[in-house]
Amino acid sequence: MTAFLADPLALKEARFDWTRPEVEAIHNAPFNDLMFAAQSLHRHVHDPNKVQKSRLLSIKTGGCAEDCGYCNQSAHFDTGLKASKLMDPAVVEAKAKQAKAGGATRFCMGAAWRDLKARDEPAIIEMIERVKALGLETCMTLGMLEDGQAERLAEAGLDFYNHNLDTSPEYYAKIITTRTWQDRIDTLARVRGAGIQVCCGGIIGMGETQSDRIGLLTELANLTPHPESVPINHLVDVAGTPLSGSEPLDGVEFVRAIATARLIMPQSVVRLSAGRESMSRELQALCFLAGAASIFVGDELLTTPNPELASDGALFETLGLEGDEAGAARRAQAPGA
Ligand code: SAM
Ligand code: DTB
Ligand code: SF4
Q1: Is the peptide bond before 48 cis (omega within 30 degrees of 0)?
Q2: 71 lines ligand 3 (CB under 6 A)
Q3: Total structural domains in the chain?
Q4: Could you tell me the distance, in angstroms and rounded to a whole number, from the CA of residue 46 to the centre of ligand 1?
Q5: Domain for residue 151, yes or no?
Q6: Does 27 map to a domain?
Q7: Which residue puts its alpha carbon closest to atom 8 of ligand 3?
Q8: Which of 20, 29, 48, 275 is positioned for an S-S bond with 43, CB 3.0–4.6 A?
Q9: Residue 202 structural domain
Q10: 125-167 pLDDT, tens per residue?
């Protein structure tokens, strides 16, 4: 057995110098060893029966200038999606209230933008203030940020900014050509510099190799400090996008990615994000066992379907899971508080 898995609790001290062969040794360990280690570390650092319910809202849909090969919202592909303008902050607040009433403790707002424009900042700031005032943990994903913008979002009270690395550095250029890997790193540095917590993960099931998945996980784990939040998405297949028709990833391989993320970023909240609509209950249960501690609830992600609230309620009941109100309250305080 790889030495890392023989003593998983030793991994609770975060490291930022992971090599690919080390991450590969964890990822490809015998499945039972990997799962036992991931769950052992998970329950040592996190509450094993708490899974946060998060809710997404598309605050500006479609017509995006970027060409991310997986995305329903890119103007480069004909997916039949109806584009819309930036939502009114009062409408966003009403949606956030509904989300809270449905049990969500985190509200994630996403805009189909390449970057945040100065003219949209006042509305964005008002959204953050209104949602924050409801007592929800707030997250936004608005594309690239310039100097000064992250500071203004932080001042408005934003808890998290989501900006994903998406895939390995080698596979990246096959998925997106309109912005570089370095652009993403620069935006992440601005978010971190402004004191906003970082939400950064990726998508798997895009036809990448196992080595790409290990590469993505290694890059995430070498961000210093680690992202506080690590969404692991499975590709949602959208007809009309270049990645439509990709072979869905084997479930065991998906769970290995979650368990590896859990072990190499011990304090982070690993989130089982997009793609649950096509996962069995048993596969999702394995993801929780591997250390996933959040899901998106509600019947829509940003623009694609997600399981009904009632079926997730039944899943929580079957597995004896509870929401994570205390964790959300803690994370909604300023970082380091
Ligand atoms: N436009 C902004 C950006 O890309 O930075 C924010 C919104 S974008 C939809 C946020 C993330 O959602 C992407 O980085 C990607 O990881 C994820 N995503 C988008 N479409 C997806 C799909 N079809 N399946 C899985 N994840 C997807
Ligand atoms: C993330 O990593 N997953 C969420 C969130 N960040 C913004 C987005 C998933 C989008 C799935 C495709 C859609 O519904 O358009
Ligand atoms: Fe635009 Fe974001 Fe979709 Fe890329 S992922 S096309 S940046 S909305």
Answers
A1: no
A2: yes
A3: 1
A4: 27
A5: yes
A6: no
A7: 112
A8: 48
A9: 38-332
A10: 999 999 999 999 999 999 999 999 999 999 999 999 999 999 9
* Residue 336 predicted with pLDDT over 70: no
- Is the predicted pLDDT of residue 207 greater than 90, yes or no? yes
- 24 found inside a domain: no
- Ligand 1 pocket test target in 56, 58, 70 with most atoms within 8 Å of CB: 70
Q: Quick check: CB of 112 below 6 Å from ligand 3? A: yes
Return the DSSP state at 276.
G
State whether the beta carbon of 289 lies less than 6 angstroms from ligand 3. Answer: no
Q: Kindly report whether the global pTM for this prediction surpasses the value 0.85.
A: yes
Q: Which of 168, 265, 164, 166 is nearest to 215 (CA)?
A: 168
CATH number (domain holding residue 289): 3.20.20.70
Burial class (CB in 10 A: 0-12, 13-18, 19+), 76: middle
Convert the pLDDT of each residue in 291-308 to its tens digit. 999 999 999 999 999 999
Instruction: Judge whether 317 and 281 are in contact, CB under 8 Å.
Output: no
According to DSSP, the residues that pair with 140 across neighbouring strands are 109, 161
- The answer to whether residue 15 sits within a structural domain is no
Q: Which residues are the active-site residues?
A: 64, 68, 71, 108, 139, 199, 271
Residue 302 CA to ligand 1 center (angstroms) comes to: 9
